[in-house]
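From the shared-data thread, chain only:
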Amino acid sequence: MILQAVLAFTNPLSPLEHLLQRILVWLHETVGFSWAWSIVALTVLVRILLVPITVRQIHSMQNLQAHAPEMKAIQQKWKHDKQRQNEELMKFYKENKINPAASCLPIVLQIPIFISLFYVLRHFKASTLHQYGGSVDWLHLVKITDRVGYQWGWLLLVIYVTSQLSSSYFMSTTMQGPQRILLMVMPLVFVFFIFKFPVGLMLYWMTTNLWTTGQGLVTRRLMPKPAPPEKRSSRTPAKDEPEPVSGNGAAPAPAKAQAPARKPVAGPPRRVKRKRGGGGTKR
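Structure, as tokens:
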């Protein structure tokens, strides 16, 4: 017990690691999946649990996209004062109930799962496979315990990069300029670091990328986009303000509408008719 407590203290993700291991064992022993397809099923279960957060993410991204012109105007107005620019943007987010961090929340929540699964697969042969057995092949091409750069692992690497680019495309629809370029280039940069990762870990991330791509295609068709904000100009009349309430709590009686003063009608000058004859002397 003391040793487990020490290990839990040094590795805060150990409870999540044990949970993922038990889910994989249940999918393999009870459901009857192979270890590779158990990882795919585990990915689907994780993404189903994240559906409510993902829906909030989609609404947040659509809201950001609808208010993008207004935010760009604020950035242009205060481009020489970064502190004031950030203050005005925070004020704008608060007034329009925008949460920029909501678009990154599903990815942030998956990072602990990704790390925990890495440790599960790292000790998979000694702890899990030795006790429960079973095949670790995936499509008779690679083993989930091998490294990505071994034998046919490069094929999985190509599928991973393609799926990562497609999922990054749907995630970066509200980003502009350098941010979007950086998000699209990152999968290519990560290729040099994931050669030593287990194939099972890449299988997990590839499945979640394919889920994100399918989710983006579905939401573009089914989820309605929010109405764009009303554009106001100097000629836009102000909204009617509520009438003030008098001291006794009763609303004042409506004032009688005064008839507009009649303006003289413009027309030709009036001609005066002169009388003939009169007091003049005859010659």
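Residues 2-221 form one domain.
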